[in-house]
């Protein structure tokens, strides 16, 4: 739907012949980004050239330009290329648009009514998560994770849910060294300050089936999180429930995670995605 200006009449709109792109370099660049976005992990330049039937020299030149602008990351040890921070931020910019919030808000309200705990929705934003919805349960404490707040992915349940749903090579591309980690105090957890520690936490998350953090964001509060996936199985958001640790016994966590997962699956379906894996 057009907003603001009226949609132009068909006779006034410029004619575009999609089958004959006038800017071949732009077309080739977008094809590379599309291929990387649709792959489950980083690809070698030779594989990109083969799949797109492009000269290797052209692919290397375009990858260099994309890497310079942050849309592609090079993994030198694996000799592969994956999506960079700029591409991830483009994805999160789309996810932050009003449709996601409008689709998600009533679902989160219903979840809060069922579990009687505060819930929120966050989208990936570079190495952070950006909170786009917060629904507080009556009488619940104020949360740091308010709308438009950004927090480091490794610190939060939402961020861990997103990272656990990504290919491991893509996570490595996002966190190539210790400089990529933001130090944050925690009372209940070992700090995630290096890739090996992050990898261990994400392995536990995949095995458990949901992410959890205890006291890393706010002392005394814990959260569980699950991903919201698009049609490719790529995490575009994460849904989390936050609660005082003393009020929720450990045996209740799987049930809370199941409720959150059902809501995430419904949201995935409404944005033409698919259900998060159990």
Automatic annotation (TrEMBL):
<dbReference type="InterPro" id="IPR050707">
    <property type="entry name" value="HTH_MetabolicPath_Reg"/>
</dbReference>
<keyword id="KW-0804">Transcription</keyword>
<dbReference type="InterPro" id="IPR014757">
    <property type="entry name" value="Tscrpt_reg_IclR_C"/>
</dbReference>
<dbReference type="Pfam" id="PF01614">
    <property type="entry name" value="IclR_C"/>
</dbReference>
<keyword id="KW-0238">DNA-binding</keyword>
<protein>
    <recommendedName>
        <fullName>Glycerol operon regulatory protein</fullName>
    </recommendedName>
</protein>
<feature type="domain" description="HTH iclR-type">
    <location>
        <begin position="23"/>
        <end position="85"/>
    </location>
</feature>
<dbReference type="InterPro" id="IPR005471">
    <property type="entry name" value="Tscrpt_reg_IclR_N"/>
</dbReference>
<feature type="domain" description="IclR-ED">
    <location>
        <begin position="86"/>
        <end position="273"/>
    </location>
</feature>
<dbReference type="GO" id="GO:0003677">
    <property type="term" value="F:DNA binding"/>
</dbReference>
<keyword id="KW-0319">Glycerol metabolism</keyword>
<feature type="region of interest" description="Disordered">
    <location>
        <begin position="1"/>
        <end position="23"/>
    </location>
</feature>
<dbReference type="Pfam" id="PF09339">
    <property type="entry name" value="HTH_IclR"/>
</dbReference>
<dbReference type="GO" id="GO:0003700">
    <property type="term" value="F:DNA-binding transcription factor activity"/>
</dbReference>
<dbReference type="InterPro" id="IPR036388">
    <property type="entry name" value="WH-like_DNA-bd_sf"/>
</dbReference>
<comment type="function">
    <text>May be an activator protein for the gylABX operon.</text>
</comment>
<dbReference type="InterPro" id="IPR036390">
    <property type="entry name" value="WH_DNA-bd_sf"/>
</dbReference>
<keyword id="KW-0805">Transcription regulation</keyword>
<dbReference type="InterPro" id="IPR029016">
    <property type="entry name" value="GAF-like_dom_sf"/>
</dbReference>
<dbReference type="GO" id="GO:0006071">
    <property type="term" value="P:glycerol metabolic process"/>
</dbReference>
<dbReference type="GO" id="GO:0045892">
    <property type="term" value="P:negative regulation of DNA-templated transcription"/>
</dbReference>
């Amino acid at each position: 739907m057009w907003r603001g200006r009226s949609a132009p009449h068909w006779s006034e709109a410029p004619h575009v012949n999609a089958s004959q792109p006038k800017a071949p370099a732009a077309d080739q660049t977008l094809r590379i980004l599309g291929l990387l976005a649709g792959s489950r992990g980083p690809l070698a330049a030779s594989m990109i050239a083969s799949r797109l039937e492009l000269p290797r020299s052209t692919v290397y030149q375009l990858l260099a330009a994309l890497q310079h602008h942050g849309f592609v990351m090079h993994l030198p040890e694996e000799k592969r290329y994956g999506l960079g921070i700029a591409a991830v931020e483009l994805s999160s910019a789309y996810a932050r648009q009003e449709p996601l919030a409008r689709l998600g808000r009533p679902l989160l309200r219903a979840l809060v009514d069922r579990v009687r705990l505060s819930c929120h929705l966050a989208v990936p934003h570079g190495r952070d998560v950006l909170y786009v919805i917060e629904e507080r349960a009556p009488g619940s404490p104020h949360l740091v994770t308010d709308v438009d707040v950004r927090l480091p992915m490794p610190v939060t349940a939402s961020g861990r849910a997103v990272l656990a749903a990504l290919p491991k090579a893509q996570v490595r591309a996002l966190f190539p060294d210790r400089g990529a980690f933001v130090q944050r105090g925690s009372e209940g957890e070992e700090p995630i300050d290096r890739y090996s520690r992050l990898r261990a936490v994400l392995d536990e998350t995949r095995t458990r089936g949901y992410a959890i953090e205890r006291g890393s964001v706010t002392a005394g509060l814990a959260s569980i999180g699950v991903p919201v996936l698009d049609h490719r199985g790529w995490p575009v958001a994460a849904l989390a429930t936050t609660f005082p640790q003393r009020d929720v016994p450990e045996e209740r966590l799987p049930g809370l995670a199941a409720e959150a997962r059902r809501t995430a699956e419904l949201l995935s379906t409404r944005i033409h995605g698919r259900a998060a894996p159990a």
